[in-house]
Design goal:
- The chain has about 250 residues and is an alpha/beta fold.
- It has one domain (about 1-245): TIM Barrel (Alpha-Beta Barrel), CATH 3.20.20.410.
- Helix content is about 40%, strand content about 15%.
- It has helices spanning about 15-20, 25-30, 35-45, 55-60, 65-70, 90-105, 120-135, 150-160, 195-205, 220-240, and strands spanning about 1-5, 20-25, 50-55, 110-115, 140-145, 165, 180-185, 210-215.
- Helix 9 packs across helix 10.
- Mean pLDDT is about 95; it is low at about 240-250.
Length: about 250
């Protein structure tokens, strides 16, 4: 199963729901929507539509991050209690809020993205272990997009111990975890990059190595590239299994 979509509503909602069957919600990272807003999205989407949620930045990012200013957040606790997977009342509440929205959306996956500054220092490793051993997952699969320079062996150990998906941009590196792939496609040479047909064919080949793949485009041309990718994987399926091909116009094949 290959799910295809974008990071955030890049089209009008009705148009997005018509074209795709997957969305990674960005608002849950910046400032989670109200429960009634999430409920409205769930009701408006097709029943088979899949929402993935990006965990609130209060869990992963320090208050010095520019993403806090972008979200115009007002903090109720000491600044040192936020970010870095610290097991504090503020961080645990941020996870509770994220998990509540995920439940309303019937999301199967929540993704934690850490900034490049969050590296493999002993304190960070300990915080990650404590956080994921402490929280209630609520039936969610959890993914971690590590953007710092984490050694592959340490990533393999942590994701295995904590039952996490290794969320990656496959054009940077492939995941250390198996079974389910969660790809976030940021553009090979930056956000303004338009993926080529060869790029998308390579992506389809990578997806073929996993039981289930989530492909989230996150570039300027995300909607166009995602639609083109749907066409390529339909052709890929037709060529490899002509007797069972049934090309789909939507975001899961």
């Amino acid at each position: 199963m290959i799910h295809v979509g974008c990071c955030g509503f890049c089209l009008r909602q009705a148009e997005y729901f018509r074209r795709f069957r997957l969305l990674e919600v960005q608002k849950t990272f910046y400032k989670p929507p109200k429960p009634e807003t999430a409920s409205r999205w769930r009701t408006s989407a097709p029943d088979d539509f899949v929402f993935a949620v990006k965990a609130w930045q209060l869990i992963t990012h320090a208050p010095s991050s520019p993403t806090y200013r972008k979200a115009k957040l007002t903090l109720s606790g000491p600044r040192e209690n936020y970010g870095g997977f610290r097991v504090t009342p503020e961080v645990l509440e941020a996870w509770r809020v994220t998990r509540r929205i995920a439940g309303i959306l019937r999301a199967p996956i929540a993704v934690f993205q850490t900034p490049p500054s969050f590296g493999p220092e002993p304190e960070n490793v300990e915080n990650i272990r404590r956080f994921f051993h402490t929280i209630e997952r609520g039936g969610l699969a959890l993914g971690w997009e590590s953007r710092g320079r984490w050694p592959e062996g340490l990533l393999r150990d942590l994701t295995g111990e904590l039952d996490l998906l290794d969320v990656v941009d496959p054009f940077v590196r492939l995941p250390v975890t198996e079974g389910t792939a969660y790809f976030r496609l940021h553009g090979r040479r930056g956000y303004r990059y338009r993926f080529t047909d060869d790029d998308l064919a390579q992506l389809a080949e990578w997806c073929g190595s996993y039981r289930e793949s989530y492909c989230l485009f996150n570039n300027v041309f995300m909607a166009e590239d995602a639609v083109r990718f749907l066409g390529i994987i339909s052709e890929f399926r037709s060529e490899s299994k002509p007797e069972s091909a049934s090309g789909s116009p939507h975001g899961s094949i």
